[in-house]
Amino acid sequence: MAAIRSARCNVTRYYKPLELREVIGNVTIDEVRDKARCQNCGSREWMSADAWSKFVGRGG
Q1: Does residue 47 carry a pLDDT above 90?
Q2: Burial degree of 24 (CB within 10 A; 0-12, 13-18, 19+)
Q3: Which pLDDT does position 60 carry in this prediction?
Q4: CA separation (Å) from 8 to 22, 23, 43, 47, 54?
Q5: In what order do the strands lie in the sheet with 47-51?
Q6: Cβ-based neighbours of 17, under 8 Å, separated by 6 or more
Q7: Which residue in 15, 32, 40, 54 is a FRET match for 47, CA 20 to 30 A apart?
Q8: Is the separation of the CB atoms in 36 and 44 below 8 Å?
């Protein structure tokens, strides 16, 4: 999953990687941050993006 957040509007939206690939292309999470724009205010300056896997292995 990827979380894209507008710090200006304090809104976080969650996306599946395939959804982001369709819209933005095959890019790194750092590039997603640069290309994302807030749907509320239209700003690109306050955006952050984080990615993580929901599958976490157990240590042993």
Answers
A1: yes
A2: middle
A3: 44
A4: 26, 22, 8, 8, 27
A5: 11-15, 2-6, 47-51
A6: 1, 2, 51
A7: 54
A8: yes
